[in-house]
Structure prediction request, 365 residues.
Amino acid sequence: MKAVAKTAYGPEHLSYMDVPNPVCGDNDIVLKVKAAGICGSDMPLLYGPDEAKYEHYTYPMVIGHEFAGEVFEVGKNVTDWKKGDRIVSDNTGYVCGHCPACETGNYLLCPERKGIGGDMDGGMAEYVRIPGIVLQRDAASVRRIPDNMEFEYASVMDPICNAYKAIIQEAEIIPGDNIVIYGNGPLGLFSVQIAKIVNAAKIIVISTKRSAPVRNPICEKLGATDLLMADDPDLVSKVKALGGEDGIAAVINCASRSANVLPQAVEMLRPGGKFVMVGYTRSAVTYAEDPADLMGHKGIHFIGHMGYDHTSWRNVLALYREGRIDMSPIVTHKLPLSKWRDGFELFTKREAAKVVLMPELDKEV
Ligand SMILES: [Zn+2]
Ligand SMILES: [Zn+2]
Prediction:
């Protein structure tokens, strides 16, 4: 089959190539991939900096952790699924089943968790295998998608569920709260959408000049009330003015290179406000000068964020089914799988928001 695969450790070494089809074990299912999202976290696979966690790949290693498709093959012991079922995976490929995280259903936090498209062959391919062990231990890691949900939207459930968890389950935003979102990449855009769904009052988005031209119009369409620039020297005072006497209830950090976000957030937030760290940063999250004291005095909550949980997935699918979520402004590009490199480039040049690869479009090229 055709797939996008890493062929060696380090930047580049990524190609559209023939790899063996996955073999469906007795407890496994194999999906025919219909759509696979390109994620910001995929960029280091092509451009570097390469990260130690990729060193243990067995090459060639198919990438892609955001994917949806149709069940193509089921192992002889599988009773929950049948050929033709339309499903999406939360990319869990293995969990231990007995650690404190697994026992409480927080499978994403399992220290032994392995991801499909992170530790084993992923979804940027014509077919992908879901291992039987995860179907047994974490059955809800694979979900049926609503009839009205197109595969390209099912494939971006990962980022929107991140936004749902950050804003609703972690920041606990309620209608009328003011919220600040750093970053207008896919996680930022989906956060705007979720903030709108919960009727946040002010939805303030902070972006860079580079990403503003394509992505800020999408922010506005989705319901952002105010757009500010990260390099604005008066950023904090402008945010505080917008928050007025109600103040800012939460800052959601969906920006990557974001070492300076925390001190700004501590200043912006109202007492008792919440800071949710969604975006990954490779720099130390640090304070400019003495705001640790301010964080304490204001009783700011710092919330480390990892992905989503089953509630996020269940509820986002329900919102979609009821017509309350429109992902079409965010999925700006649908490309054949063979055009994966174009997709990565569109994303890094900030000419796209979310890019989805669709293997079946290759037949039309
Ligand atoms: Zn992702
Ligand atoms: Zn575990």
User: Anything to note?
Assistant: The two ends are 17 Å apart (CA to CA). Residues 157-170 form the longest helix (14 residues). The longest strand covers residues 29-38. Residues 162-304 form a domain with the Rossmann fold fold (CATH 3.40.50.720).
